[in-house]
Amino acid sequence: MVQSQTSELFDSRILIVDDNPSEAAALRQGLVDFENVAVFNSGEDALTYCRTHTPHLIILDAKMPHIDGWTMCRRIREMGLLTRCPIIFLTSCNKEETEIACWESGGTDFLRKPVSPAALNMRVMSHLTTFWHIEISRRLLHTDPLTGLKNRYFYDKHIKEQLAYANRYEGDLALLVIDVDHFKRYNIAYGNEEGDTCLRKIAHILRKAINREPDCICRFGGEEFVIILPATNLIGAMHVGQKIVSAVSEAKLKHSHAPSGVLSVSVGAASFRSLENDACSLIEKAEKQLTLAKESGRNKVA
Predict the structure, then answer these.
(1) Could you give the count of Cα atoms lying within 13 Å of 178 in the half-sphere of its Cβ?
(2) How far is CA 110 from CA 85, 92, 258, 297, in A?
(3) Yes or no: domain 152-295 corresponds to CATH 3.90.660.20
(4) Which residues pair with 271 in a beta bridge?
(5) pLDDT at position 143 over 50
(6) Which of 41, 129, 258, 270 could form a disulfide with 286 if both were Cys (CB 3.0 to 4.6 A apart)?
(7) What is the mean pLDDT of residues 81-103?
(8) CB 1 within 8 A of CB 125
């Protein structure tokens, strides 16, 4: 391997999918310098993995039973966080239409079996280098400068992708809207600079409370945050919301102008499938629930 490559590249999460266990093992051995490599011999198992993890590069066998590589690639591209993930197809077929099918399904590159470990490594390093250059630029565009969370611009794009995926595959998607209780009083009492520090502390608490990889925390504006929870129903969303309420209360951040003397948050929860008999959108429903939580005493989830 080229010694000048940064260690961050070798920490990238790579997914190998090949129905032949011995070939999959050989591919893994060829990427021995990479620590975070997951290997699956089933397309179904790999898709399940992708719903809870975010690979930075995927090596995918084109022809597999049950669900082939082309179908799997299209499914992956529909997952919001994986639309830009490099996908390298592998196949032993020499037909031109096989290669064309790989490109048409959303593949990034194409290699014929048997694959040279040196060639595979060079392709992987090249694609990861390009991926991270783009990803760093995207993170700057999509990051809230105060809290380091995703911003409203990212939310608007990501929620559409997640709703489309949940709708197509008849899954669920939950949304939490979180508001810091009596935050205007906090700013008046302690000043805007301390108010900014308060929001950074809340963001830190949210990061610690939300540890499932596909879940996405965004600063929505002012003292309001949203959390997108893929593959989560309303019961699950309420559980996460209560976890957040408890985490903020347990932090005991001083707020002398709040009834309890400490900072608290109110949370509104909604899920895509719970809207079937409701004309409002997911964010509108979550906002309504947030209002209900605040009107019924704050420091709770509704």
Answers:
(1) 28
(2) 14, 11, 60, 58
(3) no
(4) 174
(5) yes
(6) 270
(7) 89
(8) yes
Q: Which residue type occupies 10?
A: F
Domain residue ranges in the chain: 7-141, 152-295
Distance CA(113)–CA(115), nearest Å, equals 5
Q: Give the closest residue to 76 by CA, choosing from 112, 40, 124, 119.
A: 40
Beta strands at 57-61 and 87-91: parallel, antiparallel or unpaired: parallel
Going by C-alpha positions, the residue among 66, 103, 100, 99 that lies closest to residue 87 is 103
For residue 4, what pLDDT is reported?
Answer: 38
pLDDT at 83 over 90: no
Amino acid at 154: F
Give residue-wise pLDDT tens across range 259-273. Answer: 999 999 999 999 999
- Stretch 167-194: mean pLDDT, rounded? 93
Is 253 in contact with 262 (CB distance < 8 Å)? Answer: yes
Active site residues: 223
Most confident of 94-98, 105-109, 160-164, 176-180: 176-180
